[in-house]
Specification:
The protein is globular and about 50 Å long. Strands 1, 2, 3, 4, 5, 6, 7, 8, 9, 10 and 11 form an eleven-stranded mixed sheet that branches. It has a single domain, classed as DHBP synthase, CATH 3.90.870. By secondary structure, it is α/β, with parallel strands linked by helices. The chain starts with a strand and ends in a 12-residue tail after the last strand. The longest helix is centred in the first third of the chain and has 12 residues. Helix 1 packs across helix 5.
């Protein structure tokens, strides 16, 4: 059965966050709250964990998984970013945005889009997510916790644990979070393109 770590939403207990990070390092999947909805995270360099994320969601390899980073420096390590893209990212992060960027060589090929060689990247604005990224000391692979063949993400930690007790290594319970998805913006073309409107308002970035 998966473990349940009940943490303070603004000041998560370091001991519990460290335990969750150790599970991730051991190849386990962990569900946690973000600034948009609950997500599932895994080690970026673990093929079995990446496959587990896709199985949980019922996704194929053409669906963009997202790399969660704690700052802009980490983004530039995993994605190719030019000056214009960097300025937009600096203005938008941290926050409820996912940016599609060209993957760098540091991103395992099995994680990036198989034909486009692109990856979803984001810097979340949630104390629990940022604490876990700090404890793990590495970006994490993630996907929104939407059950297969459903449209809405799960938002109740106890329900998540009950439903995926044999799949997840742990659930970090910081209470319910927002159910708005991230706004997805593709930065690989000549101009930024809004692929999905979510919690982030494109107008704040000068986009319609």
């Amino acid at each position: 059965m998966s473990q349940l770590f009940v943490v303070h939403p603004d000041n998560p207990q370091p001991r519990l966050i460290k335990q969750a990070a150790e599970l991730i390092q051991a190849g386990k999947l962990v569900a946690l709250p973000t600034d948009s909805s609950y997500a599932v995270v895994a080690r970026l360099d673990d093929k079995a964990a990446a496959d587990g994320l896709r199985r949980l969601r019922g996704l194929d390899e053409r669906h963009h998984l997202t790399v969660l980073c704690r700052d802009l420096a980490a983004i530039s390590h995993f994605a190719k970013v030019d000056n214009a893209q960097y300025r937009l990212l600096k203005h938008a992060t941290p926050g409820p945005w996912t940016f599609i960027l060209e993957a760098s060589r540091e991103v395992p090929r099995r994680v990036s889009h198989p034909s486009r060689k692109t990856i979803g990247i984001r810097v979340p604005d949630h104390p629990v997510t940022l604490a876990l990224l700090e404890a793990a000391d590495t970006p994490l692979l993630s996907t929104t916790l939407i059950p297969e063949n459903e449209e809405e993400p799960l938002n109740e930690p106890e329900l998540i644990r009950e439903r995926y007790q044999h799949v997840l290594g742990a659930v970090i319970d910081a209470g319910p979070c927002l159910l708005d998805p991230t706004t997805v913006i593709d930065l690989t073309g000549p101009v930024p393109e809004v692929l999905r409107r979510g919690r982030g308002d494109p107008a704040l970035l000068g986009l319609d």
